[in-house]
Design goal:
Helix content: 25-40%
Order of helices and strands: HHEEEEHEH
Largest sheet: 5 strands, antiparallel
Shape: globular
Structural class: alpha+beta
Number of domains: 1
CATH topology: Aspartate Aminotransferase, domain 1
Radius of gyration: 14 Å
Distance between the termini: 42 Å
Oligomer: single chain
Amino acid sequence: MMTNRSSAGSIDEYISEFPSETQRVLQQLRGLISATAPTATETISYAIPTFDLNGRHLVHFAGYERHVGFYPTGIGIRAFKTELAPYKSAKGSVQFPLDQPLPTELIRRMVEFRLESNLCEHPK
């Protein structure tokens, strides 16, 4: 259980701070984001794992005692509001409980949506 803000300098270091089951889910989420957005860069921002693209944050994720948080920004949450109804969510975040399977297809589509919106914000 992480109760204090992480001082990790890398995503590997951040994930290592959690119990093994949480680490497994965080690695699954990281792999899914990485596979969906292979050109995004991994970093730590706001003390949590972040994927950046074109100089902007694409998505963030984080571990907690009973859930993992996924942060696809406000536009990402609004675009999938109906599908996110079963989960606790806020303006720019959603919580996926650790005792339920990660909704990988939904997360993949949310990352794809963020890729498209990032390209619209920063056309090549």
